[in-house]
Design goal:
By secondary structure, this protein is of the alpha/beta class. The protein has helices spanning 38-42, 47-50, 77-90, 104-114, 134-148, 157-168, 178-182, 200-209, 225-238, and strands at residues 3-6, 9-17, 23-27, 55-59, 96-101, 119-125, 188-191, 213-216.
Length: 245
């Protein structure tokens, strides 16, 4: 698996599909453990296996999968967005679609905020969100951090606490407020979340707030797999530039 280095971070990634296809960036589920292997391991529909007509770019987020990076008091959502954009720059990608699941929802909002001219469309599967569940996200973060602490002597307790608050101390999508979503004009295909970590209330509110959203509520059962495949591919085709640049 190729590796990209930036600011003391080593980011592992893969590129598959059609070499001259329009680029699609994948942001995997798994919370802080967001790594590309999770697409094939835990999701009902795997974009890595189904988007043959696109140049598919998947990555292990920092300190997930094979990727590593320092932990500092300033690490936050924007740090991850900078990683994602730097990888695309490294690969010579200017415009792209993005598909994200779970924590991929907030990551997508970071890309839409920092590089709105580059993102052609976004597909969100069951985004995480705040709905009387902040402690659950803090617990997930603490479990992940406990596994990594021995590998990060550069980080003290204050760094970890600040990092956790920066990631999961916010409102709504943690990395995006309701106002941010209402101001987003990008075409978004949204698949509803249906559990405590991916609250349906978050998806429902997003679908009302976002001005250019297509909302799918039923999609996780096996009998919906073909419909999901058709819906995602049609959506991407509709928003791919005609010259395929």
């Amino acid at each position: 698996m190729p590796r990209f280095e930036r600011d003391n971070a080593s980011l592992f990634y893969s590129v598959s599909g059609k070499p001259d296809g329009f680029p699609v960036l994948l942001i995997a589920p798994g919370g802080m453990r967001s790594s590309l292997v999770r697409w094939s391991a835990v999701v009902p529909w795997d974009p890595m296996a189904n988007l043959d007509d696109y140049r598919v770019i998947a990555m292990d987020q920092r300190n997930a999968g094979r990727s590593t990076a320092p932990v500092t008091v300033s690490t936050d959502w924007d740090t991850y967005t900078a990683d994602q954009l730097a990888l695309l720059d490294h690969l010579g990608v200017t415009e792209f679609h993005v598909i994200g699941m779970c924590i991929g929802g907030p990551y997508i909002m970071g890309l839409l905020r920092h590089a709105p001219q580059r993102v052609q469309s976004a597909v969100m599967f069951q985004p995480i969100g705040l709905d009387n569940n902040r402690d659950a996200f803090f617990e997930l973060f603490d479990g992940w951090a406990a596994e990594l602490r021995s590998q990060h002597p550069e980080a003290n307790e204050e760094d970890w606490v600040s990092f956790r608050k920066a990631m999961f101390g916010g409102d709504f999508l943690f990395n995006a407020s309701r106002e941010d979503v209402a101001a987003c004009v990008h075409p978004i295909l949204l698949f509803q979340g249906q559990d405590a970590y991916h609250p349906p209330s978050t998806s429902d509110a997003f679908a009302v707030l976002a001005p250019n959203v297509t909302y799918v509520e039923e999609w996780k059962a096996p009998e919906h797999e073909q419909a999901v495949d058709f819906t995602v591919k049609r959506f991407l085709r509709q928003h791919t530039p005609s010259d395929g640049r």
